[in-house]
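Standup notes
- DV: blocked on the single-chain target, sequence here:
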Amino acid sequence: MSRRSFMRQTGRGALVAGSTLSIASILAACGIKPGASATGSAAASDATGALEWANWPLYIDIDDDGNYPSLVAFTEESGLEVNYTEAIQDNADFMGVILPDLQAGNATGWDVITPGGWVVERLARLEVLEELDHSQLPNWTANAADYAKGLWFDPENKYSLWWQGGITGLAYDPELTGREITTFDDLLDPAFAGVAGAFSDMRDMFGLTLLSLGVEPANATVDDVTRARDLLLEANGRNQFRGYYGNEYYDALAAGDLAISVAWSGDITQMQLNDNDKVQFVIPQDGAMRWNDNFAIPKGTSRLHGAHKLMNYYYGVPGATMISEYIGYFTGVNGVQEQIMADAEAYRADGDTENADYYDAVAPTVVPTEDQLANTYTDKELTEDEEAEWNDLWLEVSS
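- DV (later): unblocked, structure below
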């Protein structure tokens, strides 16, 4: 059952039936800004029109009609419409699109964005993010999990709130690899040349490669990253990787075009439940990268209060649960796992074992365990010089 079919058949989408506007993601990928909307209402001090939210693909609940049930519920609760766009395909590319406007003092057109942590750190350092007003975020104060607070890129949550988190590790189909996968070196095994997938994200790929060399990314020197570059260039020389993927790796792995790939944990949870139950996710023995994407508000938004309302809504347990039941990444909201388990019991009591089993499978995936976090590592906070050097090394690999 596809995730869309699941949402429709549970009836959850029907309870909040309605529609929101969506802009083609290809426009945003080309650097075209979101369009203004004449619909909806906003707080008295905000401009009229819909909130504009830029997010990653497959990162929200959606029904068969293309509606986002949690956003429909938000609109009914707040009176605010939301234009939701899958505008972030890659952290670096997205920052490259919005940063020129921000540095020129212009509004980006987005009211809410959800990029990775290093993007938040860079934009905050450049003073192009709005400071959050925590008096408008009571749900965050009441419900934010400890592991979702005070992260390295924003230790006081001055500019950002956790949206969803996960682990970057490896995924594989045992029927195609013919063996268990346990280390990053398995990804580089010539036996998998042409059916292995890499990521286009510099930090994920260098991070995993550094860990395979016995180096924690947070402590890596340029010499360490040069060694990582050399290892990946060697793999490129034998055409090890079918491609350096963004989100599209999912379809290639689910279809069997890839036998093994770098992967995001929540994607594989959904793949097992919906598209290919043979694919397994593994944290390499060398270690894996942990990350989270984050709500942030670019400078210059004319809907600052509405942006806070949206963020606060998703720190309420009902809104956060709707997201987690659909995408299966790590939530930053206490009480979500318990609500999913309660929903499973409610379905079972109604005799709906199919949906009860689905929720039972999702519930353990939405809160990180100590074992999962024990062998995972965060990105390094790079100086401008280090970032330039890392980018130059990565360009050699990715091109």
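- Follow-up: The first helix runs from residue 3 to 10.
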